[in-house]
Amino acid sequence: MAAVTITEVEDPASGRSFEEKIAFHAIEFPAAHGSAVMKFLSATTLTLKDMGYGHLKRMKKAETAGRLLALVAPDASVLDAVIAALPPMEELVTSQVLVHKFAPSTKDEFARGNADWPMVFHPNAEVATTVLDDADEAQMQSMVARLLDIGTPATVANGCGQQSCFVVNPASGLVVASAADWTPSTVANPLMQHAAMQALEVVSTQDLAKSVADSYLCTNYDVYMAVEPCVMCSMALVHSRVRRVIYVTKNPRSGALGSCHFLHTQRSLNHRYRVFHATITAP
Ligand SMILES: [Zn+2]
Question: Residue limits of the CMP/dCMP-type deaminase domain (predicted)?
């Protein structure tokens, strides 16, 4: 029997560390002006989210009692424009504040970051970094073997290629949905018939039939794919909140989970899943 080796797909370029900080220009002013300043900043600058810092709150209490500190922007020219347009305010002081550049991805990072500057945390973005236990790995190996047993051609192409997909409930070890797209990838190949899209459709139909209340389709489910999925399918898997994706054949033409992109490591997404590559060694 062929041996299946499971390895996690991590972004080698993701050298960015939560410890990295960025200097923001900030203004400090009497707390009585808090809501007026918030309104003014909203009207005259981009939101922190639009600047790429949606994990930071705009304002916090200053060290001096009765005063507030608000982030303006990393760019000094934005601060100058804000100061020039701000209605005259007594005791306005400008300063620079070092804040965490990237969103926290664990509760621990959130707790530490929040102590420096108030933060927003998406628990769904928390990615476990624990190693796979033996039972997990054994389940992955046997599911991969089952997936390959169904005889998909598993060719690489633009899009997802010809392939098959299982949605698995790892708690029960059952395949919840399966789908295959064996259509040769041509311009005539309908976009929505990629195997992952079809499998999600099956889960959705089952949920409707059972009146399942969870608005996310695949919470805690794992998805097995013969070929590394394309960007469309990888995003659909984000939206359906899958827990892990395991694929066999890498797709250097359009794979979004390690070959062309590392979509699963994007910190800006409010849900991330772990990705594993299964390598098959002939007996
Ligand atoms: Zn696809």
Answer: 134-276
Within the chain, what is the greatest distance between any pair of CA atoms?
79
What is the CA(182)–ligand 1 centre distance, in A?
A: 12
Query: Which residues are bridge partners to 26 per DSSP?
Result: 71, 95
Q: What's the rounded mean pLDDT across residues 123-135?
A: 65
What residues have a C-beta under 5 A from ligand 1, the ion?
Answer: 160, 194, 230, 233
Confidence of residue 193 (pLDDT cuts 50, 70, 90): confident
> For the residues 44-50, what does the mean pLDDT come to?
88
List b or e across 201-229, with b for residues whose CB sees 16 or more CB atoms inside 10 angstroms: bbbeeebeeeeeeeeebbeebbbbbbbbb
178 CA from centroid of ligand 1 (Å): 15
Which of 227, 216, 98 shows the shortest CA–CA distance to 163?
227
Residue 130 pLDDT grade (very low, low, confident, very high; cuts 50, 70, 90): low
| Residue 140: pLDDT band with limits 50, 70, 90 | very high
CA of 26 to the centre of ligand 1 (A): 44
Residue 57 has a pLDDT of 96
In the chain, the amino acid numbered 200 is L
In angstroms, what is the span from residue 205 Cα to ligand 1's centroid? 20
Q: What is the mean pLDDT of residues 41-51?
A: 88
* Centroid of ligand 1 to alpha carbon of 27 (angstroms): 47
Average of per-residue pLDDT across 47-63: 91
**For residue 126, is pLDDT > 70?**
no
Question: 235 C-alpha to center of ligand 1: Å?
Answer: 9
CA distances from 273 to 75, 124, 146, 263 (A): 34, 9, 22, 10
Measured in angstroms, how far is the CA atom of residue 196 from the centroid of ligand 1?
Answer: 7
